[in-house]
Write a structure and sequence with these properties.
The chain is about 85% helix and about 0% strand. The protein is an all-alpha fold. Helix 1 runs antiparallel to helix 2. It is elongated and about 60 Å long.
Length: about 160
């Protein structure tokens, strides 16, 4: 019975990690690690090798960095300024609280548009930078889904075999 509760907790952690992609207030890498550590300390830590833990550290860093890189890359690629990049990063967090989950897309888009217009950019340039912000979020979210799925599948394989 206790094992079932621990497995339920692990599953909840994994589900929360995906919810954290849409609601960045939930730290996806942290809840993934909580799931791994619950298994390690309360179910059977012997199944998880140093190779598993090393890979999870590397993939966790990739999870954290992919958001920053994707957002920065797309805002720059679409002509956004440094201020546009910074505003986009802050607006993603603020947007998760405003009309969730749509705020995470709408708020950064509008915030970057306004930030670029305030800097005397043309409407076309500001709109392009806003599109870059949107693509950055979507690209980062897609990368996080793939990385998290890979981490969870690796965990399942390590547990089964």
């Amino acid at each position: 019975m206790v094992d079932i509760l621990f497995w339920l907790l692990i599953i909840v952690c994994f589900v929360l990690s995906f919810i954290g992609i849409i609601y960045p207030i939930i730290p996806s890498p942290l809840v993934l690690w909580v799931g791994f550590l619950v298994y390690f300390f309360f179910v059977n830590g012997d199944n998880l090798s140093w190779v598993f833990w090393s890979a999870m550290v590397i993939l966790t860093v990739a999870l954290i960095v992919c958001d920053i890189i994707a957002n920065s890359y797309f805002v720059k690629k679409y002509g956004g300024s440094k201020w546009g990049e910074r505003i986009a990063a802050i607006a993603v967090i603020v947007g998760s609280f405003i009309i969730p989950p749509f705020g995470i897309i709408v708020v950064p888009f509008v915030a970057v548009l306004v930030a670029e217009l305030v800097q005397k950019r043309s409407m076309k340039e500001a709109f392009r930078a806003s599109i870059g912000s949107l693509l950055g979020f979507l690209g980062g979210a897609f990368a996080k889904v793939i990385i998290q799925l890979f981490m969870i599948i690796w965990f399942i394989i390590a547990v089964i075999f």
